[in-house]
Amino acid sequence: AGEFTRRAFAHGRMDLNAVEGLSDLLAAETQGQRRAALLMAEGHFSRRIDGWRAALLDLSAMAEAALDFSDEDDVPDSAIEARIGDGIAALAREVGTMLAAPSAERLRDGVRVVLAGPPNAGKSTLLNALVGREAAIVSDIAGTTRDRIEVPAAIGGTAFLFTDTAGLRGEAGDAIEAIGIDRAHAALAAADIILWLGDAADLPRADAILIAAQCDRAAPDRPGLRLSARTGEGMDALVALLRERSAALLPGEGDYALHRRQREGVAAVRDHLHAAGAQSDLLVAAEELRLARAAIDALTGQAGTEDMLDRLFAGFCIGK
Ligand SMILES: Nc1nc2c(ncn2[C@@H]2O[C@H](COP(=O)(O)OP(=O)(O)OP(=O)(O)O)[C@@H](O)[C@H]2O)c(=O)[nH]1
Ligand SMILES: [Mg+2]
Questions:
Q1: Mean pLDDT of all residues in the chain?
Q2: Could you tell me if the CB of 122 is within 6 A of ligand 1?
Q3: Is 161 in a helix, a strand, or coil?
Q4: Which of 72, 75, 168, 240 has minimal CB crowding within 10 Å?
Q5: What band does 14 get if pLDDT is binned at 50, 70 and 90?
Q6: Which residues pair with 211 in a beta bridge?
Q7: Which residue among 247, 282, 303 closes a domain?
Q8: CATH number assigned to the domain comprising residue 238
């Protein structure tokens, strides 16, 4: 596809975002990944950006025209400046909402689910049950898991990255266990979803899912989701909860996800719009609008000011 896509991009039939979408589509393994990548490849996002670009060109043309008129001193330009200001604010708002789009990296790499808790809580057993194979060693020796174990698994069409961690305890048995515990803390910090197999009082984060593990043999009145990796009790409820939580982090039907490059590009466009909107000096505002356009061109992979000039000249009849 490289050669063909490259030509399509060079000829302006696909922008960089559609190309990225196509590349994601080829790599997609789950339904959710395919759906979001297809929207991107088909150019939904690209058309949104084209719309922003057109709006920006109009605003720039208005600003340039207002600057020209102000030289002549006979046209009151507070009305047109107010219109430019409103236009900038509206566009900045629209661009800003795009930043709420889910992350394409998370969609691609999987929602990060971290299993944590004290030694012997049953973390590794639960990990194995979730991914359907003996990925982690299980034993009744406290401190069996010493390193992070990451296992990708697709459940119900959603990609997850499950991470088993070393059991957390104050006094590590040795230096290696201490390193493992540090890594467990790092994994917790980067988790999208935490399964906590410890005491309710030690919940590492307010949104962590409290699991009452080993319910087939533990005290029956513990708080949390009753679960036994041995009998399978509670597994369906846990999977349902994981799917529900991950749905909020991933693009829904008809949504696309943004890569970091795209998110940064969108943020740059919005920042220049904010800067333009905060400017009382029209000349500086016009320059910020130009920078916003450059950020859009970087986002789409296109450059060139030709169409800006077209629009500028077309806008010359403003107020006539
Ligand atoms: N009856 C019962 N035993 C379980 C269950 N889950 C784990 N176990 C047992 O509990 C012991 C510890 O399980 P692990 O999964 O190794 O516990 P862990 O939390 O990974 O422990 P560390 O790696 O040492 O931190 C093992 O002997 C398991 O067989 C369960 O749901 N029911
Ligand atoms: Mg373990």
A1: 88
A2: yes
A3: strand
A4: 72
A5: confident
A6: 225
A7: 247
A8: 3.40.50.300
